[in-house]
Amino acid sequence: MTGMYRLWPDPAATELTDDELLGCYLPADRSRPYVRVNFVTSADGAVSVAGYSAGLSGGADKRVFGLLRRVCDAVMVGAGTLRHEGYGAMRLGARSRAWRRDAGLAEYPPLVLVSSRLELDPASEMFADAPTRPIVVTHGGSPVDRRTALAEVADVLVHGDAEVDLPAALADLAGRGLTQVLCEGGPHLLGSLTAADAVDELCLTVSPQLAGPGAGRITAGPPTTGRGLQLAHVLAADDNLLLRYVRE
Q1: Which pathway or pathways does this protein act in (predicted)?
Q2: pTM for the predicted model, two decimal places
Q3: For residue 50, what are the contacts with CB-CB under 8 A and spacing of at least 6?
Q4: Closest by Cα among 205, 176, 169 to 46
Q5: What is the mean pLDDT of residues 178-195?
Q6: Are 240 and 40 a contacting pair, CB within 8 Å?
Q7: Angle in degrees, 0-180, between the axes of helices 59-71 and 94-102, rounded to the nearest 10
Q8: How confident is the model at residue 50 (pLDDT cuts 50, 70, 90)?
């Protein structure tokens, strides 16, 4: 297992225990709707290597990736990223499931798919093998026949007329008890969440690589007004930096 050390605040030379690391990411108030975004980037700002984020991810990033899924209420992913990265059914290991049961949470967080065109296969593994019913978020202009087909295997939420109304969708999720939303990308979804001022936290792993020109950033879409964040912690593992930023 990759050793993790705290650099800030309260730097320590001793490795963080599993419980201490988990404590770095526990939600402060589960009753309050909260959107946490998790990304990995190269040292020169690339979102992928050879087209995939897996080329940047190592043991430290994967360890935190699993912990963030453990403590969330729902995992949100854009449909394009889901197809490109090859997402399957949303499953967790035995240890994470036991922790969630002890915490009074459902064993598995539902997968929330955000899609405008609904180019999703209802027979795919992400639906057919899902341990809990997925949720598809779309808008009123999406193809009705695809909505009908997907409604057989997922809860389909329609918010917005020609594009997804993310604040309304997040309010709908919170009304279902899914207040702690973990967004795993992709860049266009992060851009839309930023435009809606809906990002409460950014967890960013900086991988010790130079990807070179060509790859995009972790965010994409039309220009928008940004928002200030404040640094909550800095962890280190195997030359990776794991940063956590929260709303000011």
Answers
A1: Cofactor biosynthesis; riboflavin biosynthesis
A2: 0.96
A3: none
A4: 205
A5: 96
A6: no
A7: 30
A8: confident
- Asked whether the predicted pLDDT for residue 1 surpasses 70, the reply is no
Q: Tens of pLDDT along 58-68?
A: 999 999 999 99
Overall average pLDDT of the 28-45 stretch: 96
Question: How many whole angstroms separate alpha carbon 42 and alpha carbon 239?
Answer: 12
Instruction: For residues 114 and 136, give the distance between their C-alpha atoms in angstroms, rounded to a whole number.
Output: 6
Q: Which residues are within 8 A (CB) of 191 and not within 5 positions of it... i.e. 6 or more apart?
A: 219, 220, 221, 222, 224
Name the helix (H) or strand (E) containing 167. Answer: helix 166-175
* 3-state SS class at 82: helix
Which residues face 138 on adjacent strands? 158
Distances (CA, A) of 243 to 22, 30, 37, 107, 230: 14, 22, 12, 27, 11
Q: Mind giving me the DSSP string for 88-110? A: ------HHHHHHHHHTT--SSPP
Mean of all residue pLDDT scores within the chain: 95
Which value, to the nearest 10 degrees, does the dihedral of the CA atoms of residues 96, 99, 105, 109 take? -10
Task: Name the one residue in this structure whose structure tokens are 């949470």.
Answer: 105
Q: Is the dihedral of CA 231, 233, 108, 149 positive or negative?
A: positive
